[in-house]
């Protein structure tokens, strides 16, 4: 199912990947400040997902995602200046993740994460390449090299009925808004 949904939203994913990468240090600082806001709230949403999970593999999946975000948050402590206000378009992703945590079923939550993560990782990889040797990129490298267990995700998703294509489009549209906002501001 994951592969089929990725094919159906490939145009949107390609739009995200084609948003120009930036090279200005000030943009990277803005990126880190927006991520500070986002990751703090993503952790809370992932904790809600853990609390709503029913089976051990679901709990494991969300705990692993939560531990990854927590590691990212620890890396942000050193680089986020925490001086810039959240940009609504940039942080809308985390608000949608909160909605998913509270109202979507476990299959839809897992699908959103597993659809979004490879595109996020690819964008982080490109940024890490742009800033290597110029600024701290530990956060970017961490996410560029992180993985979610897609076999486990597929097994979980299959247990649930859901509006999977809509969930995938929505999470990726919020990802698109994030990258556009960073470039725009």
Q: Major beta sheet, specifics?
A: none
H and E string: HHHHHHHHH
Count of DSSP H/I helices: 9
> What shape does the CA trace take?
globular
Total separate domains: 1
Keywords:
79% helix; 185 residues; Heme Oxygenase, Chain A; mainly alpha
Plain-language structure description:
The termini are far apart. The chain has a single domain (2-15, 24-184), classed as Heme Oxygenase, Chain A, CATH 1.20.910. It has 185 residues and is an all-alpha fold. It contains 9 helices and no strands. The model has no long low-confidence stretch (mean pLDDT 98).
Q: What secondary-structure arrangement, pairings included, does this model have?
A:
Elements: H1 2-8, H2 10-18, H3 25-52, H4 56-79, H5 88-103, H6 106-131, H7 138-145, H8 150-157, H9 164-184
Summed up:
The chain has helices at residues 2-8, 10-18, 25-52, 56-79, 88-103, 106-131, 138-145, 150-157, 164-184.
